[in-house]
Write a structure and sequence with these properties.
alpha/beta; 250 residues; Rossmann fold
């Protein structure tokens, strides 16, 4: 596993940072992708480099809402680290607004980031992987890939689209040994949604929000050889929340 290379988008915070750290701990080299190269990203990156070695982590950046960025992130990772064995499409945004207040810009930006960016990154990654011995693509969707929630009409639609994209790619890319799966987190306690996670605790049968490390463990398994016969699946990680109706709007 020491020579395996993964690219994780949105790797600097929350779920993405937990995934990056877990893959490094498992022996992967890492393309560490962030939206930009602002100084605020250097703290988590410096910590990872100190613990796991500077040579094992290559920082790439750019907004995946821009059509040319996903290909560049993949190309720069391959150029620096030699190959690409796993792509984790984690970068995304959450648009929470009543349906009648949504704008064209809300729709376009949500789909540009949550769907098109992942589509283009997967396409660029698959072109490299097919020339190797296959690989794994994991798309981070949401429990709202499967269930709706008030004020999430655009967000849920985008995550559902990404989930179906995963299934279709699993069919098309299987011939190249490329596996594609989705991970659909529910309420996860991250800095971005800590307040919402606390509000939703009563809606979760297990009685608590999930931890980013729990999502990372599942992603790491899907990227590993232990999941070599797994493709086209969506793994819901929500403490049982999707088994009951969530009544609190986003």
């Amino acid at each position: 596993m020491a020579e395996r290379v993964a690219l994780v988008t949105g790797a600097n915070t929350g779920i993405g940072l937990a995934i990056a750290e877990r893959l490094l701990a498992d022996g992967w080299k890492l393309g560490y992708a962030t939206q930009d190269n602002e100084q605020k990203h250097e703290g988590p990156l410096a910590d990872l480099r100190q613990r796991y070695g500077k040579g094992r982590i290559h920082w790439v950046w750019g907004s995946i809402a821009e059509p040319d960025v996903p290909e560049r992130l993949v190309a720069e990772t391959v150029e620096a680290l030699g190959r690409l064995d796993a792509l984790v499409n984690n970068a995304g945004l959450s648009t929470a607004k009543p349906f009648l207040e949504l704008t064209i810009d809300d729709f376009d930006l949500t789909f540009d980031v949550d769907v098109r960016g992942s589509f283009l990154a997967a396409q660029a990654a698959a072109r490299r992987m097919k020339e190797q011995d296959g690989g794994s693509i994991v798309n981070i969707t949401s429990v709202h890939e499967h269930i709706p929630r008030a004020d999430f009409s655009v967000y849920a639609a985008a995550k559902a689209a990404l989930g179906m994209l995963s299934r279709n790619l699993a069919l098309e890319l299987a011939q190249f040994g490329i596996r594609v799966n989705s991970v659909a987190p529910g309420v996860i306690a991250t800095p971005r949604n800590e307040a919402d996670a606390e509000r939703l605790d009563p809606e979760v049968p297990l009685g608590r929000p999930g931890r980013p490390e729990e999502v990372a463990a599942l992603v790491a398994w899907l990227c590993s050889g232990e999941a070599s016969y797994v493709t086209g699946s969506s793994y819901v990680l929500d403490g049982g929340m999707s088994q009951q109706v969530v009544s609190i709007p986003a």
